[in-house]
Structures are given as structure tokens and as C-alpha cells.
């Protein structure tokens, strides 16, 4: 395991490797009842966000297509679709004919996150309390109401798993209805990762990851995820890869059991992440540098394989497993960047 120099990172890592019941001595925060919180490290936590990008100093690699301010991206290899959300509009680009005009689906509100399932795209709309289900590749739309502000939705073992940020829950939605609500220990439910047969939820306020027992309906063990975790993705090895934006690191957690296996320093405002399973590459954006980096994650620590300059504010990323192409989305309206490594 590699870690950066300095006692602060070393102490944080030591704390993160311990389970909740024995973490009190590593904590300086209080929970809602004024008691010591084993994971929270400040009294008033604030979720980390993408660092603001400077004006680019290098020409973006690859090609750039015009687009609005992009909030989310997702690639579906089976349907050969790249989905791009800009406000309340989702554009469906054909991966095998990327220069052609995309199909456009207009939703009831701005999209926070896009994920792909079996033949469909899931789009969360927190301001409307909805999940949009978009059939792929055709774009047929249905919506599902969710109590609260859904931040993320992924296919699960017995329905769609929904992270509901304001209610601090993981809901199970099946046949258009919420059939189970899972609570416990969360300050904010922001993202769900299905790694192998395990489910993990990312809590940005506590900057922690928690296991979720979906059949049992419980939130389980939790571990610190650096100083300001923002995004996560599953890899091919049953792990959850997490970007620690404040701490400047790429983290790798095994999920069964939940353990921090790697902490690899990455300077430059690490934020968005996507995974290419065909090449075991984790692609991350560095918003402070307007860069994207590809790490081989097969070994004992990540190994940098690629680094490219990007468009400004690269807050979104997706990858096409079939061709290895990487797609980067600008949150300031500077387009969609297409890179062929």
C-alpha cells in the first residue's frame, strides 16, 4: 500500500482501516445526538465538490464536440450508446457513429446522475423526486416517483437500488414502487456501487463508505474514505474505487469484507471516475489541472498508463470498453471530448 508523505495522511489511513466500533479515538466530530462519531472528523461536515478549473493552457487531446454544460455521462456497451445529460436534456449518441446527431430525451428536471442497466438508462432527478427510465437504444421514457431527492440509482438483486440523499436511505424500487427502505448510520446517501455480489453506499458528508445488506435491509460496516470522497465505481476485482478529492487520492476498497486495500496519492483535484473492464483501467479527471489520467489497477498499486490534457472543468467521464475511447464532459459548456488512447 502506497501513501503520501506526512503524518496527517498516515493517521487518516490508520483510522480508516479500523471498523466503526473502535474508531472513537480517531474522531473529532459529533453526531446528531452530540455523541462521538467514529467516522466524522469535523463538527459541521460539508460534502466535497469538484475544484474549479483554471483556463486551459494546453490544447485538449483528441476531438471536441459542442455541447451544453454537462452534468453526467454514462456509456452502454451493449446498446452502443453514450448518454450525456445537460440540464434536463439527455442526449443519446451512437458510439459507432458518434458524429451523427443524437436522439434527445427531455426530462422534468436537471439530471444528477446517469447509470446503465439491462437495456435501459437510469437518470436521477432530485429536484422532482423522480427516476427516469430511458429504454436503450430507442429512448422511450417512463418515470418512477421516489420520496425525497434521489441522487443515484443502479440495478440491484431484487429491483432498482436508489440512494436518497435527503432521507439518508437506500430504497429498493420494483415495478414502479418502493418496496423496501434501508436506513442506519448515514448522513447522506449519495452513490451506490455494486461490486461483485456486494453493495456499497458512498456518504459524501461523512466521507465514508458503508456496506448494504439488501436482503436483510440493513446498513452495515462503514469505513472512512479519505478527507472528502466524491465519486466511486466498481472494478473487475470486486472492489469499489473511490476518488478522495480533498485528500488527493485514489482509494480501493474490497467489499467482502469492507477494507481499505490501497491509498494512492493523485494530485490535481481528482474527481470523476470511470472504469474500463477490458483493460483494467481506472480513468480519473483532475479538475485543478484540466487533465484525465488512466491508471492500471491490476497490481498492488495503481500504475499510470495515460495522461491527457482536457477541456475546462472535466467533471464527467465515461469509457467505451469495446474501443477504449474515453469521453470527458465539461461542466462549463465547452463540449464533449473524445480521446482514443
TrEMBL record:
Q: Which InterPro entries would you find in this protein's record?
A: WD40/YVTN_repeat-like_dom_sf (IPR015943)
Q: Which UniProt keywords apply?
A: Signal
Signal peptide range = 1-24
**Keyword Signal (UniProt):** yes
> What protein name is recorded for this chain?
YncE family protein
Source species, please? Amycolatopsis pigmentata
Amino acid at each position: 500500500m502506497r501513501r503520501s508523505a506526512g503524518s496527517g495522511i498516515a493517521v487518516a489511513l490508520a483510522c480508516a482501516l479500523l471498523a466503526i466500533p473502535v474508531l472513537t479515538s480517531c474522531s473529532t466530530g459529533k453526531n446528531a445526538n452530540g455523541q462521538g462519531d467514529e467516522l466524522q472528523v469535523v463538527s459541521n461536515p460539508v460534502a466535497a465538490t469538484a475544484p474549479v478549473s483554471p483556463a486551459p493552457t494546453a490544447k485538449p487531446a483528441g476531438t471536441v464536440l459542442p455541447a451544453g454544460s454537462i452534468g453526467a455521462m454514462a456509456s452502454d456497451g451493449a446498446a452502443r450508446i453514450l448518454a450525456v445529460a445537460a440540464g434536463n436534456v439527455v442526449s443519446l449518441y451512437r458510439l459507432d457513429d458518434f458524429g451523427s446527431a443524437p436522439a434527445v430525451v427531455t426530462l422534468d428536471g436537471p439530471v444528477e446522475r446517469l447509470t446503465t442497466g439491462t437495456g435501459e438508462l437510469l437518470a436521477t432527478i432530485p429536484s422532482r423526486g423522480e427516476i427516469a427510465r430511458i429504454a436503450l437504444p430507442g429512448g422511450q421514457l417512463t418515470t418512477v416517483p421516489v420520496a425525497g431527492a434521489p441522487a443515484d440509482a443502479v440495478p440491484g438483486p431484487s429491483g432498482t437500488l436508489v440512494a436518497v440523499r435527503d432521507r439518508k436511505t437506500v430504497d429498493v424500487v420494483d415495478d414502479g414502487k418502493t418496496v423496501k427502505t434501508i436506513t442506519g448510520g448515514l448522513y447522506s446517501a449519495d452513490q451506490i456501487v455494486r461490486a461483485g455480489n456486494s453493495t456499497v453506499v458512498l456518504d459524501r458528508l461523512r466521507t465514508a463508505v458503508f456496506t448494504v445488506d439488501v436482503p436483510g435491509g440493513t446498513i452495515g460496516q462503514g469505513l472512512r474514505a479519505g478527507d472528502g470522497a466524491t465519486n466511486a465505481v466498481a472494478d473487475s476485482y470486486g472492489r469499489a474505487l473511490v476518488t478522495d478529492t480533498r485528500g488527493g487520492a485514489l482509494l480501493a476498497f474490497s467489499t467482502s469484507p469492507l477494507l481499505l486495500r490501497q491509498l494512492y496519492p493523485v494530485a490535481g483535484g481528482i474527481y470523476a471516475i470511470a472504469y474500463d473492464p477490458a483493460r483494467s483501467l481506472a480513468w480519473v479527471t483532475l479538475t485543478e489541472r484540466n487533465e484525465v489520467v488512466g491508471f492500471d489497477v491490476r497490481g498492488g498499486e495503481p500504475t499510470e498508463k495515460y495522461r491527457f490534457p482536457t477541456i475546462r472543468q472535466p467533471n464527467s467521464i465515461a469509457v467505451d470498453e469495446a474501443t477504449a475511447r474515453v469521453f470527458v464532459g465539461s461542466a462549463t459548456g465547452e463540449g464533449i471530448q473524445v480521446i482514443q488512447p
